[in-house]
Amino acid sequence: MVTDNDAGRADADRRHAGERGAKLSGIYALVDRGLVDDPIGLAVAVLAAGVRVLQYRAKSGVDPAIVRRMRAHTAAARAILIVNDDVEAALEADGLHVGQSDLAALDLAALRARLGSRLLGISCATPQEARVAAELGADYLGAGPFAPTGTKLDAGAPIGAEGLRGVVSATALPVAAIGGIGLENLETVARSGAAMACIGGALVHGGDPHAAALALVRRWAEVAPA
Question: 116, 164, 182, 188: least CB-packed within 10 angstroms?
């Protein structure tokens, strides 16, 4: 039997999910443990610059304590924290992101039940993968690599603006372009229809993540279609 309390919680979950979904736009910072020694410091720097979507990725293993600390900062900034690959750690955050290679090993129905109102992002590179991801219950898509990238060695061939437009046109879900994105091609990404630009290396390679993030946030505001 569904009680009034159950219905109230479900309504609250839907409202919270809707609030998070509405924030899926702009610069999406990739806090990659393989690129930085201080992921918390990077998160604080990009949040201060106005970034409101972050993904924490640690291919050598996600530390739940770091996720909890990062979540405290994102919550204070009213930002979204997504965890890459690790379902248990994602339960401490606002959502989970998985790649195509992870899908075969996952029970998506069970995963959605565990995530509750948390967001699920799925990587894709083609319109067909985008359509399948939507059918599987994704809340947003990661599309790429947009351009050549040294951050993820198994990223595959770049899809470019044409490939990104194909993914965007195949779904009504917000799309985050990823891979090889910086100030020099941010306008192309925005005008290809992506709701977000997921950026990792360009935040850290110049040595000043706050300044880099601030420049990217401002540039996106200039070039993103209204």
Answer: 116
Contact 147, 180 (CB under 8 A): yes
pLDDT at 153: 57
Q: Please list the rounded mean pLDDT of every run of 10 residues in the chain (226 residues).
A: 40 45 88 95 98 96 96 98 97 97 90 95 97 96 91 76 98 97 98 98 96 98 93
Task: Please tell me the pTM assigned to this model.
Answer: 0.88
Please answer whether residues 24 and 13 qualify as being in contact, where contact means their C-beta atoms are separated by less than 8 angstroms: no
Distance of alpha carbon 127 from alpha carbon 59, whole angstroms: 27
Q: Judge whether 169 and 127 are in contact, CB under 8 Å.
A: yes
47 contact partners, CB below 8 Å, separation of at least 6: 54, 73, 74, 77, 79
Considering the domain delimited by 26-223, tell me its CATH architecture: Alpha-Beta Barrel (3.20)
